[in-house]
Amino acid sequence: MAKEPVRVLVTGAAGQIGYALVPMIARGVMLGPDQPVILHMLDIPPAAEALNGVKMELVDAAFPLLKGVVATTDVVEACTGVNIAVMVGGFPRKEGMERKDVMSKNVSIYKSQASALEQHAAPNCKVLVVANPANTNALILKEFAPSIPAKNITALTRLDHNRALGQISERLNVQVCDVKNVIIWGNHSSTQYPDVNHATVKTPSGEKPVRELVKDDAWLNGEFITTVQQRGAAIIKARKLSSALSAASSACDHIRDWVLGTPEGTWVSMGVYSDGSYNVPAGVIYSFPVTCKNGEWTIVQGLAIDELSRKKLDLTGAELCEEKELAYSCLS
């Protein structure tokens, strides 16, 4: 029996990340090789022609799982009936702009998209915010879509999680699929804390802790952390463009694990609405280690937090509280 198509919204769909993301969704990378999809693509009016070009290419690619494409600059049409929303569109920070200016632009974007999703999306729509500042954009969306359950609104920190896995795999010269249970704590910003204290590597003699195998705490507590924190800037320096392929791929990973579940014994990092677990601030969107089952995420509890980690969890939490205050000041 063929499955009913799932409607997936991508905002900012004519941009770099959108262009990398939509073929992945259409190919089954996000929801599985037997799940048909209908793509809803939204962008701003100046990008309408480019958006239509993306639609033409999707038709030309003849994806068997792709059962329809809606390409529009109308937010209501874009949000109508969607089961999954990937919010890639946002206002990027430009040279000379103050943080408050960027925040103000994004607050107005996410406020209007929140009400469109709330009124027109399918019940139980799952939302992933990719556009920066992702955690706080997700918080604004939650505030202005009160009927969407808080647990259904998330921010992308899977890109940072995957970057951390990649750095460990390169350092140890092991397959990235054999590394698991790194954690990204906090904000998708340079204050995020990539934590390997509970991470393991599959070896011929069983799973071993990353710290035991790396045997270099100075690197793990220093260069490793800053490399993951600043990887986005390093890619901009190298490509003269921001991360697109890796961001799109990690957005697929985030949704796939959320919808289809995480493997037994493995957790992933997701920016979710904080309940104050691990004594971090409640009421912000904070990245935690989570497991997923039956379409629901659960924060992994009971992990030991050492003194260095405690400071880093608090630092990124303080930044999120500052961002929240800044965002709320843009509303007044």
- Give helix and strand order, one letter per element, not per position: EHEHEHEHEHEHEEEEEHHHHHEEEH
- Helix tally equals 12
Number of strands: 14
Name the structural class.
Answer: alpha/beta
Short description, anyone?
The chain is 43% helix and 20% strand.
Molecular structure report:
It is built from twelve helices and 14 strands. The strands form four sheets. Strands 3-2-1-4-5-6 form a six-stranded parallel sheet. A three-stranded antiparallel sheet has the order 7-10-11. It has two domains: 6-155, 3-Layer(aba) Sandwich (Rossmann fold), CATH 3.40.50; 157-328, Alpha-Beta Complex (L-2-Hydroxyisocaproate Dehydrogenase, Chain A, domain 2). Helix 4 links the parallel strand 4 (84-87) and strand 5. 43% of the residues lie in helices and 20% in strands.
Features:
332 residues; alpha/beta; Rossmann fold; L-2-Hydroxyisocaproate Dehydrogenase, Chain A, domain 2; 6-stranded parallel sheet; 3-stranded antiparallel sheet; 12 helices; 14 strands
